[in-house]
Amino acid sequence: METPLKDSVFDCYVDDQGVTPWTLSVASGYNLLRDPHHNKGLAFTEKERDAHYLRGLLPPTVIPQDLQVKKLLNNLRQYQVPLQKYMAMMDLQESNEKLFYKLLIEHVEELLPVVYTPTVGEACQKYGSIVKRPQGLYISLKEKGKILEVLRNWPERNIQVIVVTDGERILGLGDLGCQGMGIPVGKLSLYTALGGVCPSACLPVTIDVGTNNERMLNDEFYIGLRQKRATGQEYTELVHEFMVAVKQNYGEKILIQFEDFANHNAFDLLEKYSNTHLVFNDDIQGTASVVLAGVVAALKLVGGTLADHTFLFLGAGEAGTGIAELIALEISKKTSTALEDARKKIWLVDSKGLIVSSRKESLQHFKKPWAHEHEPIKDLIDAVKDIKPTVLIGTSGVGRTFTKDVVEAMAAINEVFYLPTCVLCRFKREIMLTVILLWIILQKPIILALSNPTSQSECTAEEAYTWTEGRAIFASGSPFDPVEYEGNVFVPGQANNAYIFPGFGLGLIMSGTIRVRDDMLLAASEALAAQVTQENFDKGLIYPPFTNIRKISANIAAKVAAKAYELGLATRLPQPEDLVNHAESCMYNPSYQNYR
């Protein structure tokens, strides 16, 4: 008999014993074929077809799951339009859950851009037109006062992770309202495929308070509330009721991931609930962790420590300030200096120019720590020439803002690096002289164009490599194809949050952690950076390939869990001796089970 979902991550493993495909009752016949959790399609054996009244409901052939994967992959490759591939994958998820995850896990590099960025952005824009069967839980202003009741309508009882959005800032596309549901659905697919969290333990939620997007409001196929977005007390009360209800219904250890909230709400929600709930904001914290990992890995290519480098950001919203703060925390930790001093190595440019102390009174609270003493500078190119950064990071959400002038300036500033080396020499057998040698090294500018989707990237991989004459260390938020420049092939890295949040979440869940702390994010960054091999560095990569993502996630989960135990925030005791093996043993396996 299939074990009911318990308060653990250990219920989704596959063993060699038969199981019974339970729904509310034993699924059989026509209903079994339409139950995505248990459907196996043509992989039902002859014995299973007899036992579960499937005779005549399927063609006579029996094919294994591996052949089903091959067939579906061939079918997907026939589509020329990414959105068609997305829709086909969503149809598969709604009809055969295990086959969906088997396909995604085994071909993750090819299919990750299909089920998530960049394709998910277009899917959200057209969600009302393409969605066939509602996914996730929709909580609108109509449900105010009865959110607990709405949560109890969800069929699964033992939820371990919720991804929630209000749709106000979907990727770099703005306010998509209720149609932002594609983001929680996509994120949770990756929690399962990349982090091994059981799909039945995942709940996507959209909080619908309206939208200010006139195109959505006038679209006859729009699926959300047709009203302007609620703000102030009305908004705050609805979100608070949701947070209280989630904890009441699912307990202290439920992980709530905030996704694509606008800046003014994202920071406030994270600050408000970080000490009462297990909350994580992927746009602020997840992005920060993955970018820090890439920069730490890049040090192997450019030399020095974090504290030796100067950082300039274009964009000072959730992602930009989140990354900046985590880099400053790591510098502070490694150098034993005050956080305020570590921040002085980091500069931010927003829509009004360089953030400096003379602007402090007019700045939003999350920008104020980055207001350093400096004369005002309006344009990015002037900031680059004056600050002379070694690392340029784009989180602006505005495409092509790393212009040729900007990138060429980065290349010129980082053209040579003088490394002084002291050497003791014996002179006439008696006198020791110190000789200072200056090693002249061609420096590599680090350029990270992180905005999503691809159309919003600050520059392309080809532009970065061409305008720096092949010297740039480049990574982006959405994927770019390899670039050939003067006979050399450069493989651009992708600073994808999917490197971090699935393993991070698994680490929290498997340890029963009750609060998220910055040290856990630093541990995740260090774990990811450690997975980059010399072979990856030789190709100019600062992130490991996604083909190994489950192993990467297991290592991240282990480091996060270890830090949680160290901080006394883990509740699953005793602590396992080998956390990496423990993480791997907890992971969901999408292989079919045998039914009695």
Automatic annotation (TrEMBL):
<dbReference type="InterPro" id="IPR015884">
    <property type="entry name" value="Malic_enzyme_CS"/>
</dbReference>
<dbReference type="InterPro" id="IPR001891">
    <property type="entry name" value="Malic_OxRdtase"/>
</dbReference>
<dbReference type="InterPro" id="IPR012301">
    <property type="entry name" value="Malic_N_dom"/>
</dbReference>
<dbReference type="GO" id="GO:0004473">
    <property type="term" value="F:malate dehydrogenase (decarboxylating) (NADP+) activity"/>
</dbReference>
<dbReference type="GO" id="GO:0046872">
    <property type="term" value="F:metal ion binding"/>
</dbReference>
<keyword id="KW-0479">Metal-binding</keyword>
<feature type="active site" description="Proton acceptor">
    <location>
        <position position="187"/>
    </location>
</feature>
<feature type="binding site">
    <location>
        <position position="283"/>
    </location>
    <ligand>
        <name>a divalent metal cation</name>
    </ligand>
</feature>
<comment type="similarity">
    <text>Belongs to the malic enzymes family.</text>
</comment>
<protein>
    <recommendedName>
        <fullName>Malic enzyme</fullName>
    </recommendedName>
</protein>
<dbReference type="InterPro" id="IPR046346">
    <property type="entry name" value="Aminoacid_DH-like_N_sf"/>
</dbReference>
<dbReference type="InterPro" id="IPR036291">
    <property type="entry name" value="NAD(P)-bd_dom_sf"/>
</dbReference>
<feature type="binding site">
    <location>
        <position position="169"/>
    </location>
    <ligand>
        <name>(S)-malate</name>
    </ligand>
</feature>
<dbReference type="GO" id="GO:0009507">
    <property type="term" value="C:chloroplast"/>
</dbReference>
<feature type="binding site">
    <location>
        <position position="260"/>
    </location>
    <ligand>
        <name>a divalent metal cation</name>
    </ligand>
</feature>
<dbReference type="InterPro" id="IPR012302">
    <property type="entry name" value="Malic_NAD-bd"/>
</dbReference>
<feature type="active site" description="Proton donor">
    <location>
        <position position="116"/>
    </location>
</feature>
<feature type="domain" description="Malic enzyme N-terminal">
    <location>
        <begin position="93"/>
        <end position="274"/>
    </location>
</feature>
<dbReference type="InterPro" id="IPR037062">
    <property type="entry name" value="Malic_N_dom_sf"/>
</dbReference>
<keyword id="KW-0560">Oxidoreductase</keyword>
<dbReference type="Pfam" id="PF00390">
    <property type="entry name" value="malic"/>
</dbReference>
<dbReference type="GO" id="GO:0051287">
    <property type="term" value="F:NAD binding"/>
</dbReference>
<feature type="domain" description="Malic enzyme NAD-binding">
    <location>
        <begin position="284"/>
        <end position="565"/>
    </location>
</feature>
<feature type="binding site">
    <location>
        <position position="496"/>
    </location>
    <ligand>
        <name>(S)-malate</name>
    </ligand>
</feature>
<dbReference type="Pfam" id="PF03949">
    <property type="entry name" value="Malic_M"/>
</dbReference>
<feature type="binding site">
    <location>
        <position position="259"/>
    </location>
    <ligand>
        <name>a divalent metal cation</name>
    </ligand>
</feature>
<dbReference type="GO" id="GO:0006108">
    <property type="term" value="P:malate metabolic process"/>
</dbReference>
<feature type="binding site">
    <location>
        <position position="452"/>
    </location>
    <ligand>
        <name>(S)-malate</name>
    </ligand>
</feature>
